Amino acid sequence: MPLAAVTLVDYVTGGGAERAAMEIAMRLGPEVRSTVVSSRLDGSARTHPKYAATIAELEAADVRWIGLGRTSTARFWEWRALVSLLRREHVDILHSHSWGSNFWAPALGALGGVRAVVAHEQTPFARIGGVRRWGAQAIVNRWIAGPWADAIVVPSAWSRAALIEHEGVPAAKIHVIPNAAHAVAFTREELDATRAELAAAPDQAELVVVAAMLRPEKAQDVLIRAVAELAPSRPHLRLLLLGGGTPQRPRGTQDELEALAATLGIADRVRFLGRREDVARVVAAADVAVLCSRGENLPLAVLEYMEAGTPIVATDVGGVRELVTDGVHALVVPPDDPGALARAVDDALTDREAARERATAARTRRRAHFDWDTVGGQVRALYKELLADQSARGPAPL
């Protein structure tokens, strides 16, 4: 009989955390009866343009989706339906993603009688640029997930070290399971058509793309300043920003970024593409793909850039160096440094042969080491290990 696992997450789309949660839930295999519970969505999400495609993808992979329809953090009684489901279906594993779900999961798991709770943390940790951040996430890691979850999954060795050193999480509970990407392939005709859509003169255009939510930590402002530095010497340079904000703030920082581009005199060089279903194709059609973040864990964007075969420029944050080696797979620069970012982009656009060699090496590395099916197998193995430990310990004393 397959073990039963419930993936708990606020939404089904958004940033890398949501995407990773969906990918893992779909790849647990026939040994796991997989259900995704979206606490902040209700049944209407099945027809919502932002969520419908992902829900259909889940169900096509034989993963059940349930929208819990929670309306407020303070209304704790809105969790009753999930607790009932956990008890009724004798769920073995409750696997929560991101700090909001990680906050509730240990209590929900106890009330629902699950055998093990797994907390999955994708976001940057307590120190970014040497600054201590006592936010809700750090509190959840230190005081709730750390002591009360049976296991904590992180995608990088960097994040494991951060949890141990800065947030006091027991090392034995932390499991490193990396993120991954899908294999993609596009014809020359498809890429040419995409370039024609994105640039008035596609044969001359130099397209720089960044795929990230429009949030301050993603630092698109730094990249806009870098493009402004390059603009006088590169008249055909164009910047494409893929991604939107959060459900609470759909435009994210777009207004501020538009104002900055206008102030720097490059408003006509910057395009906000929003959320698109063809992100991989846009990245593959670009000349340079950039990660300009101030803080990351193990960024899905870089993995997707690696697979796309597009030359990469990335800031040296989080676990980026666990994905790429500077000069071999990408050009790695310090965060919050528009000048360094501009020089790296300029280098990638100038020495095309070296850039292509790095891009080819990056794709080869992605395909050898970062595959979603492998990740799903690692998570499934963790589930079995946790349940075996529970069985070996026997029932708790009365």
Task: Outline the structure in words.
α4 (98-112) links the parallel β4 and β5. This protein has helices at residues 16-26, 52-60, 80-88, 98-112, 136-148, 157-167, 188-198, 220-230, 254-263, 279-285, 300-308, 320-323, 338-350, 352-369, 372-393; strands at 3-9, 32-38, 64-67, 93-97, 116-120, 127-128, 131-132, 151-154, 174-176, 206-211, 237-242, 270-274, 288-291, 312-315, 331-333. The chain has 15 helices and 15 strands. The strands form three sheets. The chain has a seven-stranded parallel β-sheet, with helices on both faces. A six-stranded parallel β-sheet has the order 12-11-10-13-14-15, with helices on both faces. It has a two-stranded antiparallel ribbon with strand order 6-7. The relative contact order is 0.12. The protein has 398 residues and is an alpha/beta fold. It is elongated, with a radius of gyration of 22 Å. α3 (80-88) packs across α4 (98-112) and α8 (220-230) crosses α13 (338-350).
